[in-house]
């Protein structure tokens, strides 16, 4: 049987599959794709890259912070590019686009291995530049379905687990005697074949059914006028959600990129397993919470509950940090609880928040657009935080800085979540299923 006939057979069977079978297949394919992508993005964070380099020949800077900022600059730029590319790209081109983006990222890691500091930072810009579009390309296969919450939760689990796992793999590669500069490239090579298989499986998913479209509104590419109209109509609420995401992204990136330094300060030196085990516990909790949202059919009610869950996450970050400082919680428990609070606030942005928002307001659009707007500004926040740490609090330990930032994130995010909830409750009229009446939706242009 030819590869084409195998692909056609799998797609046909997926069209007739039970919801459980379809969801299982889609989650495995999406999870595998994004999990493997992390092997081309995050392993370098497991290395210390100790010492300083002179930026522009005069400005001393931590080598690791320079590399992280460089990758985030590329990744952030990719998000701004993705606002247009992801929201306009047709479904038939997504799989090839994923492979091309990751191929460029791996080539950048090869260059990173041979280019000396500080010029190796340019290679990290090139590495991050294509990878920022992978989430939107993968989520494009999943959105607009009755099972989108479950599928999105499965996809989101990939980056929570992958971040710890690929850094643990990177540490093991270093333990084999591989130089720090070569470790990211070689770690990426280990995941190349699984990546190819996962992307092929993902490409075989059939498009949303008529029943899916009736439940969540039809998802179509958005041209410039449709994007501008959507933002203009809901600007205050979207601005609040974007500010929230800037803080959560900066918090998540700091916790992720400096996990080794924070865990070392907590007394877990030389224990790479703690990276993965803590994130796996968090993943299980996040999956249970987000998958439960799928049971809520009323879109507006689900949108409100998602906000309340995210607000609870912000509160948990602050409370767990306070209990850690009072020595009521040990370091490992604090990292797990703060991480859980972070991810139940952060993960909905990429999988359920905007999917339910679009269904609530009744606009024919794509969730990928707003995911990429918030992502783009989110990584600007991450760059700003690293610059603030390097030049404003260089002498402050990674752990003490993270504690202070935990308090700030908890307070500001809680206020913004409350405002966003109030705004969208006032702005959405309730139809029979929690969506706006069609007349309201028609006011926003689309290129459908």
What this model shows, in words?
Helix content is 74%, strand content 2%. It is mostly helical and 448 residues long. Helix 3 (63-88) packs antiparallel against helix 18 (367-392), helix 7 (148-175) crosses helix 16 (331-351) and helix 12 (235-257) crosses helix 18 (367-392). The two termini are 38 Å apart.
Main beta sheet: 2 strands, antiparallel
The portion of residues assigned to helices is: over 70%
CATH domain class? Mainly Alpha
Give the mean pLDDT. 83
Structural class: mainly alpha
Count the DSSP helices: 20
Order of helices and strands: HHEEHHHHHHHHHHHHHHHHHH
Shape: globular
Fold-level CATH name = Growth Hormone, Chain: A
Going across the biggest sheet, name each strand in turn.
1-2
Computed CA radius of gyration, to the nearest angstrom: 21 Å
The strand count comes to 2
Distance between the termini: 38 Å
Strand content: under 5%
CATH superfamily: MFS general substrate transporter like domains
Q: What is the second-level CATH architecture?
A: Up-down Bundle
- Uncertain runs are 430-448
What count of structural domains? 1
């Amino acid at each position: 049987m030819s590869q084409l006939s195998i692909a056609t057979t799998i797609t046909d069977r997926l069209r007739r599959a039970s919801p459980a079978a379809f969801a299982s297949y889609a989650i495995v394919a999406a999870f595998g794709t994004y999990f493997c992508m992390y092997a081309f993005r995050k392993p370098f964070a497991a290395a210390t890259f100790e010492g300083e380099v002179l930026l522009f020949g005069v400005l001393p800077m931590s080598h690791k912070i320079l590399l992280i900022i460089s990758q985030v600059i590329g990744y952030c730029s990719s998000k701004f590019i993705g606002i247009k590319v992801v929201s306009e790209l047709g479904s038939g081109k997504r799989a090839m686009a994923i492979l091309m983006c990751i191929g460029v990222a791996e080539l950048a890691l090869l260059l990173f291995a041979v280019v000396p500091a500080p010029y190796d930072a340019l290679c990290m810009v090139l590495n991050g530049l294509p990878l920022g579009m992978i989430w939107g390309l993968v989520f494009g296969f999943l959105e607009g379905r009755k099972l989108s919450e479950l599928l999105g939760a499965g996809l989101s689990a990939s980056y929570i687990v992958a971040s710890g796992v690929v850094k643990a793999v990177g540490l093991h590669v270093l333990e084999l005697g591989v130089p720090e500069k070569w470790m990211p490239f070689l770690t990426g090579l280990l995941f190349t074949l699984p990546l190819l298989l996962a992307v092929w499986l993902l490409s075989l998913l059939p498009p949303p059914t008529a029943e899916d479209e009736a439940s969540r509104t039809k998802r179509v590419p958005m041209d410039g006028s449709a994007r501008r109209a959507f933002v203009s109509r809901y600007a205050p609420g979207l601005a609040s959600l974007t500010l929230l995401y800037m803080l959560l992204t900066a918090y998540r990136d700091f916790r992720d990129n400096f996990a080794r330094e924070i865990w070392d300060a907590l007394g877990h030196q030389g224990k790479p397993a703690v990276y993965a085990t803590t994130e796996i516990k968090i993943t299980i909790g996040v999956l249970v919470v987000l998958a439960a949202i799928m049971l809520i059919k009323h879109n507006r009610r689900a949108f409100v509950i998602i906000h309340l869950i995210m607000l609870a996450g912000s509160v948990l970050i602050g409370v767990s940090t306070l209990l850690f400082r009072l020595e009521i919680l040990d370091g490992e428990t604090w990292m797990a609880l703060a991480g859980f609070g972070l991810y139940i606030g952060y993960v909905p942005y990429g999988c359920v928040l905007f999917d339910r928002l679009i269904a609530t307001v009744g606009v024919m659009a794509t969730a990928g657009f707003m995911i990429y707007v918030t992502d783009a500004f989110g990584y600007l926040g991450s760059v700003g935080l690293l610059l603030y740490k390097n030049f404003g609090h260089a002498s402050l330990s990674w752990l003490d800085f993270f504690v202070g930032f935990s308090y700030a994130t908890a307070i500001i995010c809680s206020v913004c979540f409350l405002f966003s909830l109030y705004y969208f409750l006032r702005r959405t009229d309730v139809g029979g299923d929690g969506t706006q009446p069609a007349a309201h939706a028609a006011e926003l242009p689309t290129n459908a």
